[in-house]
Amino acid sequence: MHFYGLLLFAVSLLAFSNASTLQGTIDEKKLQLILQEGLKSKDIVSLYYSIKGLKSINVAIPNVCQEIRGSKYDLRSVEQVFYLTNAAALSGCQNVLTPDVMNTPTQILDKKDATLQELYYAVYSLKALGKGSIYDKEDGLKNLIQVLKKDDSPANYGYLFALCEHMGCGDWSTSHAEGVLLAADESDGKALHFEGGLPATSMLLSTIARAYKSQKKPSPLTAEQKLKFAEYLLSRRSVNSPKGAALLLEAAYAVANDEPTPIAITIKGKKYVTAETDNIEISITDLLQRPVKGLKPEDVIAQSGTRLADDVVVLSKQPLTQRDATTFVLNLNKIKSQYGLYKIALSAGSKTASLNVAVLGEIQVTNCEVGLGDVDGTTSPKITNVPYPEELLDELQADHMQKLSLKFTVRDRQSKPVSVQQAFVRVGDRGREAVFVAEPDNAKAYRVELNVGAIGKHLGHQSGAYQVSIFLGDSAVSNPIAWDLGEIHFKFEKEPTAVAARSPAGPLPEIRHQFREASPRPARAVSDVFAAACAAPLALLLLLWARLGINFGNFPLTLSALVFHLSLGASLSLYGVFWLRLTMFDTVRYLLPLAALSFLSGHRLLRRLVRDKQSR
Prior knowledge:
The chain has 18 helices and 21 strands. It is α+β, with helices and mostly antiparallel strands. A hairpin with a 4-residue loop joins strand 18 (439-440) and strand 19. It starts with a helix and ends with a helix. Residues 1-17 and 498-502 have low confidence and may be disordered.
């Protein structure tokens, strides 16, 4: 049963549409459930988008005034005020608002460096409160354009288009919309979206659509642009928040209501036919699963059907039967006895799509032979015939010097030899198994030869009885086969234990780490000569001091001079101690404070000497 489920999953992946039609649709009912659940939220953002989304699809909204009153919001944030006031306006709950809700939007309009986003929130907050026009059309547009020049991102164009919708400057929006559309980003050559993701894309598509509609101008979107924007929206259809659902619906309606609308041609339900069933249901809808306007039943035609195995055309110009507004039925009675995969070229008006369907056929195994023979082929193998679906009557035995061979043929209901996509032979028990691929020869007979000694490593060299099974499957087969041939007793050579055999009995000797022995020291005479050479400069210094005399007359009797010479002497002494007993790290730790003291006192001493010289 599990194997059959995997087969159906593989068949479900066969249907595909070409680049001129959509790859799927948006489930409006699923988004409606998300929006209705959002009405229970305590977050004002979720409440606003839930109300807005349900209003856009004409779903009745219950009384949510208490929810709006008890929601969480910050009156100091103009964005939060926007959500609050518009949620109240959409649901008719303005009576829950307090007078101080106007303070923040009013302050934003007086703000010199306000952004377009802030101005959008402020204007539409006051509009929701019934304040009417906020900006003068001419001067207001000039000021907004100056703000746009500071940041001309797609999102800011969307805010300006929305403000123009409020101010009545839709002609400016239509004159700039095409340029904005050209700035959309393309993903994998299949989808278009704007920088900023779904929020920016939804706002721009909806505001542009409303602007052109108000100006009574044809849509600026080309058929290719609509298709690619729709593909992007399909990639976001797994949204799970009220905000995502509302934005997705708003953008989807903007694209779907733009005629000619992109359409989706998909297989509805099963994607295969069998000997008992011969119909394939095909769904033809717009992005929102609505019927395609102007599509006539006689315009839906299967232009051709081609068998993928040999490119033979099996049907041509076959009309489909309309079952309801969005469902059309393709009858494949003519080819349901011809097992295989087929490509159907379908046209719906001016749109075309290619769909792959499978004609599932039944298969059976014939001429199954199980043979045991020597690996070197010195003797002819002993052949045992096993009729499907029976098992071996005698228990066969094979050792590591033999090989097991299987040969069988796969046939369809007409007893014609066929090839399948998956043919495996399994050898195993509950704990261990080995799976081998069976390959067909020129006569389409499948063969597998198993060297018993070689398969021992896959089974842990554990001799015993193992079940031998054949598995056959194909995406165009209605009865995948899992056939247990029976048990065969294998006797494997014992696993090599060469390493263990070389190991002596009893515990091994303890491993001790030993450092390299020290190199021999040089002769005493060499050491003495080297030490004398090192001491020669010091001896020369003492000799010169004794002959010339030491002049202490110019030694400055200051604290800095005394500290400098003492710290310098201590540093030299430290080197001697390092040579005798200290480690390098201990020496560095002691040397750092001495070096700092020598540097500071020496710097002060030099400054004093220079100052005394200049005074003389």
